[in-house]
Amino acid sequence: MTRWSVASAAWRSSGTGVRVFAVCAALVLGFQIVPTAQAQDSSVLAKIRHSGVLKVALYKNFPPFSHDGQGADVELAEALAAKLGVKMAPLWFEADENMEDDLRNMVWKGHYLGYGPADVMMHAPVDREYMAKVDRVKFFAPYHRERYAVGRQLAKLPTLDGFEPLEKLPFAVEGDTLAATILLSADGGRYRNSLKSFRTADQAVAALKSGAVAATLAQQGELEGGLKGDARFAIDLPPHPVLQKRQWVVGLAVKAQSEDLVLALQTAVNELMADGTVKRIMQRHGVQHRQP
Known about the structure:
The chain is of the alpha/beta class. It is 37% helix and 22% strand. It is built from twelve helices and nine strands. Strands 1, 2, 3, 4, 5, 6, 7, 8 and 9 form a nine-stranded mixed beta sheet that branches.
């Protein structure tokens, strides 16, 4: 599964004469010329308010942010819709191979199976370098900062100043992530035999809670939501300089040129951040809100 993290950070023109003829013919016949794509996009907010519904793309199987119809991102999406004076309609989707696929399916084009795109996508990257590579999407309104952390059983790992104790203790990580890549190669690969790879971070956290592993390396928000302050466990920054430095900001994504919707949602996020709503939502789901 490849939701955004630092680990995953991946018209035909006719002749002038034909165009003039087409425009003149339209004027003579009294037809209204079809608006440009930008003019159509400028009415996105009006269309949403007219329909009374804000369609929001939300990741499936991503607790504590969005899972089984609930989560911090779900509550935040509902609060954003309320700010616009409409209802929130979730558009649930599975993470694809990479973020580009997710954005294509849920933001600017729609899935080939026939659903999407949504009006806005939650938990999207707000990363300057990545944003410069994607011109079909507008990223904005950062509302949370994420990073890697280690959840550990205190009974088996009272402290964790380095990865050396994990050479003899099983520990979990979500597969196909930067964390997994680093742990597989760290210290000459000495931890490979102890490393247990899971398809999702939720499964890796469940293994920790069941006692199947002594520690789990995952995004801190996923660990916080999964462990929910259980006194048997501690959550620390990973004892690795690269993983400690890796942090990323998540926010909203809409189709490019949807300026009116961007302005309205940015204003809504600003207000929800300022009055403490975002922090309270995160806390209800066990997550320590980290300012972007």
